[in-house]
Amino acid sequence: MSEGKTPPRGRLIVLEGGDGSGKSRLTRELERRLSDQRLAVEAVREPGSTPLGERIREIINSESAVDDALAELLLFEAARAHLVARLIEPALAAGTHVLCDRFTASSVAYQSYGRGLPRAVVERANTLATGALTPDLTLLLDLPPAVGLARRHADGRLSHFDALPLDFHERVRAGYLDLAAESAERWRVIDATQPFEAVLEDAWGALRAVVA
Ligand code: TYD
Fold it and tell me: Of all helices (H) and strands (E), which one includes residue 51?
């Protein structure tokens, strides 16, 4: 790149879905494919990926789980604000594509549809934490919560969210589907009950259209 030239801004691609939907594995595979194409890419997860974010993750996942929905929301938002400021914005500005395992839609789905906080409150907090940064593409790995939870039981990675009643997870799923319908041009709903290879191909097809 010649001196003084600003690279084209990177794309923000977010992976969303209920627990056990396979987002983390898909994030790794998409990162590998983009790198294989010699595209600059960084993969991050929420909450986490910065030292502060990882500490907040430990608090949220600790034995004495946070027992207040607003406090829980603000912990996720603190981790998000740090991640956006320290990693996501600098990467996008440098022309690096960012794959983010969960983002603002998780807070709408879990803290509003799931926990019952007013959606306007969650959206205000999202805007504050991100400076209104909006993903270029959100890939929603959709599957019945009972299927996702059975997968989590099978691989023994249960968090306290997994232990919440099935109707909590049904509300989270409904929240995601509402969000996808509201912004259909920037969301792709993927049937996550398919074999992983088929999920990967669907996701890759949608991603290619955005990073091309
Ligand atoms: P994690 O171990 O990342 O679960 P997964 O592998 O399914 O992504 O744990 C994150 C949990 O936190 C997950 O159950 C969803 C929840 N969460 C929220 O409730 N709100 C949020 O804003 C975010 C980012 C996550």
Answer: helix 51-60
